[in-house]
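Worked example 2:
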Amino acid sequence: MGDINRITNGLEHEQVQLHPKDEISMKMWLSVLHKQGANTFCKDKVDVPPPGSQLADDLVILVVQTKFQSDVFRRLGSSILCIDGTHNTTCYSVQLLTIMVRDQWGHGMQSILCQ
């Protein structure tokens, strides 16, 4: 069973990792998602922050909003927008943000963001 799991993980890794370096692989995935209609933004430690953003130079931010999430936000986001943030939930210094939009009946869709 261990051999099967290693083979499965290896095959899955080949499909997911577009480049041996994670930083390059992530940017390649963002390019693929952008071509599929997603809104993407990435600032890593070597990127200069956008002018006027007041972001720290060494801050890493990764934002992905799929086309579906964007469509739902445009449709429902004008009524109620809820944001919740967590911190210190893992051994990594990663902040997880959840954004939810709701319609007039209380039904909603959420997006989860890691920072």
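The chain has one domain: 20-114. The chain has a mean pLDDT of 78.
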